[in-house]
Amino acid sequence: MRWKIETFHKILKSGCRAEAARLRTAERIVNLIAVFCILSWRIFWMTMMNRVTPTASPLIALTPLVIRLLDELLRQDTRNHPEPGQKKSLAKYLTKIARLGGYLARSKDPPPGNAVMWRGLSRLTDIEIGFIMGARLVGN
Asked: Which of 13, 79, 81, 94 pairs with 5 at a CA distance of 20 to 30 A?
């Protein structure tokens, strides 16, 4: 289990770039590291869930809005998945997030890792914020 702890710290250090933060007070640093720990845990958890229970419902990790955005952004290739009523699985949506982060999703590729999940989730967050802001501006 040591590799899981090391992987979590790698996400915290490399993905969050916690060491690059130039905060002046201890209270601010503690708050920043607390948020980074939550983000790092989520990335690590999503990566592990993709490997352990790929057929689970995507709603255990993603909101309905995120699922809808991923469906619109990255449509499935109809040659490989001809059934339109195909069950939505966690693995499909996590792969879509990884594709936003640069994962190629070729047939022989291993499951996406933490780095592409981090980049993909970061990009997806920006897209989600843009969508919400656009809906507010157009709705008014």
From this structure: 94
pLDDT of 32 above 90: no
Mean pLDDT of 113-125: 93
How far is it, in rounded angstroms, from Cα 88 to Cα 58? Answer: 7
* Maximum C-alpha span of the chain: 56
Which tens digit of pLDDT belongs to each residue from 55-89? 999 999 999 999 999 999 988 654 455 455 667 89
- Enumerate domains of the chain plus CATH numbers: 2-139 (1.10.740.10)
Averaged pLDDT for residues 101-105: 93
**CA pair distance 62, 138, nearest whole angstrom:** 25
User: Is 11:43 a contact under the CB 8 Å cutoff?
Assistant: yes
Amino acid at 122: S
Q: Under a CB-based contact definition with an 8 Å cutoff, are residues 58 and 88 in contact?
A: yes
Q: Are 108 and 130 in contact (CB under 8 A)?
A: no
